[in-house]
Amino acid sequence: MLSEPSTATVRATLPAVGAAIGDIADLFYRKLFDAHPELLRDLFNRGNQASGAQRQALAGSIAAFATQLVEHPGTRPDVMLDRIAHKHASLGVTAAQYDVVHTHLFAAIAEVLGDAVTPEVAAAWDEVYWLMANALIAIEERLYAQQGVVAGDVWRAWEVVSRTEETADVATFQLRPADGAPAPAFRPGQYVSVQVELPDGARQIRQYSLSCAPGSALRSFTVKRVHGGGAPDGEVSRQLHDHVRAGDRLRVSAPYGDLVLKSAEAPLLLASAGIGCTPMLSMLEHLADSGHRAPVTVVHGDRSPADHALRADHALFTAKLPDAAAHFWYENPEQGHPADRTGLVDLTGVAIPSGTHAYLCGPLPFMRAVRTQLLAKGVPAADIHYEVFGPDLWLAEG
């Protein structure tokens, strides 16, 4: 909880800091990478840095955390903190790196806000930072302990066993630990980080949802080729698609992620768009394997049936459940596809059972639209869970 003097100071300065937080985040990253270029090369996503998405996500998370502290002092945004901590753990972030961030973040705050940063203001925002940082450090330490790894040392060598072309732009890679030891357990919906060495020597990291059920002997993740306007957009997906084949090795993290099934008995809605289907496939296969009997509503949107990765599995696992229905929307459907399933996902005619827990994954506009429709149908906000591939811009976009 923020101290009383700091609460008053943060409340008074929050509008000014909030208005400048984008500039602060931009300057922070420039200072950080000037001092530690290896972080941009081997830890941070260069594509997200180039697009500004990471800066936007950082600004949104800091503003949201500070607002929570002053408006709801008895609580903290645990959902947001858990999501960030899982991502950090999958990257191998350590407690010592928070000191590095603190140094350059507060240098950026002082430079952007100038004389407005009095000793009292600096002390108050320092308290905000360490409340957030220490909360993340504690969660990350717990996550490392759960996986039985030393803090930050999350990487193992994995061998690619097979590769399957799902669509023209999507491939699934099956892997096993290169050392022959058992693969670590995971929960359906979780992801791994994959570290890929690029032609310029950088070791860039991306997260990919595991698209298999936990009972599988092998682990698989599915990658969509990103067609960017040039480096670094899509540089990792292109490297995987163009160069990784059976017999190659990849460095893969322990599994993390907070988009996991919260209730084994509740009715479920699994909604996805595009490559967002991958965590839903893991959940569906697990539900089929475990004999889930409550209603399951499967919703997916895509450009066309040919673009719908793992389409056959999506339908197959749904059909294995005793009380489940799949609804696929396509913007460019094949002949005979229902007219009311053409275009963007629209839940108007889809029955949502009482007590449904919803899980969403896909582009942010899709998830916002589905969430709005679910709220209108009476699904409580607390029962709607989501996963974002890349920086979480939900808060940053308001």
TrEMBL record:
Keyword Plastid among UniProt keywords: no
Q: Where is the Globin domain?
A: 1-141
Question: Which InterPro entries does the entry link to?
Answer: Cbr1-like_FAD-bd_dom, FAD-bd_FR_type, Globin, OxRdtase_FAD/NAD-bd
| Residues making up the signal peptide according to the UniProt record | none
The record lists the membrane-crossing segments as none
Q: Which UniProt keywords apply?
A: 2Fe-2S, Heme, Iron, Iron-sulfur, Metal-binding, Oxygen transport, Transport
Keyword DNA-binding annotated: no
User: Which residues belong to any copy of the FAD-binding FR-type domain?
Assistant: 153-262
Provide the family line: Belongs to the globin family.
In Swiss-Prot or TrEMBL terms, this protein is called FAD-binding oxidoreductase
Lineage of producing organism:
Bacteria, Bacillati, Actinomycetota, Actinomycetes, Kitasatosporales
